[in-house]
Amino acid sequence: NEELEVEKEDSLREKVISYGSRIVADSLKLIYLVPVYIRNFTFLDEIYEEESWGEFHHPIIYDYKKRTSKKIIDFSFIGDKLSFENISNNNVIAFTGACEDTDGDGQITLLDFNSLYVYSIEDRVLRKVTKENYTVNSFEFVKGQKDILLNINYDKNKDNEIDSNTEPSFIMRYDYSRDKLIPLVDEDFQNDIIKSDKNITMIKRYN
Prior knowledge:
By secondary structure, the protein is mainly beta. It has 2 helices and 15 strands. The protein has helices spanning 2-11, 187-195; strands spanning 13-19, 23-26, 31-34, 36-44, 47-52, 60-63, 68-71, 78-87, 90-98, 115-120, 125-129, 134-141, 147-154, 169-175, 180-183. The strands form 4 sheets. It has a 4-stranded antiparallel β-sheet with strand order 2-3-6-7, with no helix packed on it. Strands 8-9-10-11 form a 4-stranded antiparallel β-sheet, with no helix packed on it. It has a 4-stranded antiparallel β-sheet with strand order 12-13-14-15, with no helix packed on it. Strand 14 (169-175) and strand 15 (180-183) form a beta hairpin. The longest helix is centred in the N-terminal third of the chain and has 10 residues, at 2-11. The N and C termini lie far apart (49 Å).
């Protein structure tokens, strides 16, 4: 029956783990970040058929002096856009990624809604920066500051898909010291922009 066929297929599936090139996260303490990639294979008629590569799944922190490894993430995840910055003498790793199947295709991929993740090397704490119905497209550390700028799309009609032609995008600021996501343009200024354009008859703020 169908249930047995699913079990048989799962039993023939092999997951192969590959480790990416190490990245220096803290040169003084000799701490490295190692991206982990998981590749799925299906064995059919003695032939391995490659299914997919993810960007990375479980970034690992490797402490060379202590000879220890630690997973940053302990849940289903796929991510990309790794970046590093020193904030108040604290080395910080940031990346975007998805941990939920928001588009309902049965898989967690980078096409699902992405959040920003920020990990402190000093505190060994992971922060998830997100808001409901938002997806993070890109981000950038502000040099010499404790902020991260994010480009965000908003799923206005809440259909778990982003239509860039009809749904708004924003730039927001993540205040690392306060762990707070803040609109780059405040509401009064945004309304002033709207009032200056007579062609716009209605405005609704989404951030």
